[in-house]
Amino acid sequence: MDGQWINTVRLGPKSQIVIPKEVREMFGLSPGDTLLLMADRERGIALVDPAAYADVVDKVLGDDHQADGRPE
User: Is residue 16 part of a domain?
Assistant: First the structure.
């Protein structure tokens, strides 16, 4: 599966997820990069590049929101 990756990851002692090296390299991720976490009880959890959804978030929430989703 070129360009795709599937495996399990574990939560560390501080409930942190370590993104495997292969995936970090595939997406050019570095320490300090920001990812958007989306969660749905039925569909699961996804981590995505926030730039891919910036326009959608702006349209849904308008200009009165912060990066963490709380109203200003």
Answer: yes
What integer is the mean pLDDT of 48-70?
A: 71
Question: Does the reported pTM lie above 0.70?
Answer: no
3-state SS of the chain? CCCCCCCCCCECCCCCECCCHHHHHHHCCCCCCCCEEEEECCCEEEEECHHHHHHHHHHHHCCCECCCCCEC
Number of domains the chain contains: 1
Find tokens 């050019």 and name the residue: 28
Amino acid at 63: D
